[in-house]
Structure formats: C-alpha cells, structure tokens
Design brief:
Number of helices of chain A: 5
Number of strands of chain A: 0
Number of strands of chain B: 0
Strand content of chain B: under 5%
Largest sheet of chain A: none
Helix content of chain A: 55-70%
Structural class of chain B: mainly alpha
Number of helices of chain B: 4
Oligomer: heterodimer
Number of domains of chain A: 1
Shape of chain B: flat
Radius of gyration of chain B: 22 Å
Order of helices and strands of chain A: HHHHH
Distance between the termini of chain B: 51 Å
Number of domains of chain B: 1
Radius of gyration of chain A: 19 Å
Order of helices and strands of chain B: HHHH
Chain lengths: 159, 94
Amino acid sequence: MSGMSKIVKTIASITFPFVMIYGLYIIAHGHLTPGGGFQGGAIVASGAAMILVAYGSIWTMGKVKEKYLSVLESTGAIVFIGTAIFGLLFAGIFFNNFLFDGNIIFNIVPEKGSTVGILNSAGTLPIMNFAVGLKVIAGLFVIVLVMAYATTKRGGGKK
Amino acid sequence: MKMSKRNFAAVIFFTIVAVFLFFTALLMHPFGDFDENEPEMDQRIIDNSQTETGANNAVTGVVFDYRGFDTLGEATVLFTAVAGVILVFRRLKK
C-alpha cells in the first residue's frame, strides 16, 4: 500500500482524533460503563489502522517503528502482571484487589444498586484496564503494521 | 503389528482423559435448569460485585478481579500472536 488520494488522507486526518478520544474514553471508563481495555484498545488500533490504510505503510513505518510498539506492549504486560503480584505481596492472593477500600487511590466504594459512576473507584481495575488497553493498542497495531509493510512492493516490483 | 511404547502411552492417556470427560459430562447440571433455592455464581456476582470490587461495571469486575487469570491468559495469547507475526514477516521485510 502506498497511500490513497488526497481526499481520503484529509478525511482520515480529521476523523483520527475523535476515534482516539473515543477509544481512550472507553479504556478510562472501563470500570463504569460497558467496554474496557480490550474493546477500547481495539477501537484505538482501528483508528491507527485507518491512518495506515490512508497514508500507506511506508509513510507510517517512517513515523512509528515496530520495536517501540513492542516495547509499549511489553510495558502493558509488565504493569498488568506487576499489579497482580502487588496483590500477592500486600494481600496474600494473586490478583487481589488490594486498593479498592484502602486510602491510597481509586478507593471510593459505590453504593449497592444502580448509582452514578465515580471515576475514583474500583481499586486495581482501572490500572489493569490501562495496562491491557496499552497492550491491545500496541499489539493489534503492530500486527497490522508489520503485515502491511512486509507485503508492500518497493523498488521496481521487488518484494 | 507391535505397538510402540509411545503409541501405547498415548492410548492410555487418551483413555484416561476420555473417561474423565465422560463422567464430568454426566455430573453437569441440566441445561437451562435453575434452582431457586440455591442461587449460583451469577446471582452472587450480581449481588456482591459492587461491594467486593468497587466497580459499577460488573463485567469488568468479573474479568479483572474474579477471573483475573483468564485475562492473563488472553494477554498471553495476544503477546504470542504479536511475536509470531513479527517472526514470520521479518524475512519479507528486507
């Protein structure tokens, strides 16, 4: 793929920030509204794939290197497992939600039943949502990017 | 034809797993049957997930707290997929 027409590029550039904001909102409100790390990460990665289709894989590969995306994905995995291991250290159980009724952060326990969502609640769940979201963003985008870049014809039809 | 040691072990292992799965299937409770006197996992999660995890979204409460290991496995699957794609397509890049 070597980029599409100017119309497609302009429209993709205009739509891109809104897709990003929507996906990041889904990740950040994962413990309050439907969705979460996986779903929001898939939305953000779809927006990045739209840019990839519009501008072509060579241009995109010049902007984002896949090794940095791999580092981002591994960071997400380490944060996720690290939070689980902190549960083991502080509360004695792997994946224990040790923050949700403490006094550090994310510590408001909502009323039982249907209530207004409080962003500062749910303990370790927002942290894990962000970690999984980072992992899914980087993972899905690096898959699409590497496959698109590897199958692009460059330099006189040479694969 | 004489069966090799490896095939013999495979047959024994297969038999054990098959018997185990068969008796597990017999022990499952009937499909769609709900006993009101013994509310099960779903009712317990609906009742307690807000006070036990602090999350208004019960699905996130289940995915990241009650069933954290499942999410860890999914994350591992994604990691393996990325590693496989980069491994396969690295030769085509040059």
